[in-house]
Amino acid sequence: MDNDQKETLIKEVQWESFHDERLKISARDDLEIIRSQVKQGAAQLWECTSANNHGYAVTRIDPGPELVVVLGEGSGFMEFAPRFVEFAKRKNMTIRTHVTRKGMIRFWSRLGLNVDEYILRG
Fold it and tell me: What is the spatial distance between Cα 14 and Cα 43, in angstroms, rounded to a whole number?
């Protein structure tokens, strides 16, 4: 491999204290819950790297089975997210994620996910 090239790598990593800062925007008020789930093994923290992008994702598998993309943060959504969708398909799982930004609906729709419900709060 050329030194200027870096393969795309998605690997499971252990939660370290610096992840609190790196995932706080996506995790919002659920950071403590998500951290606890990862540390207990109920969810998985993935580090996603390539030549141009770096990010993190947290997933868990719910009954169904269903792969839940709990959060994603960093750069490279369109590079890394298809790998999670492909994994779910290979394992005959449905895939679910919750989004707060309309733009993310467009991204996930390009990968074959459809809007299932709307949640309104007051």
Answer: 11
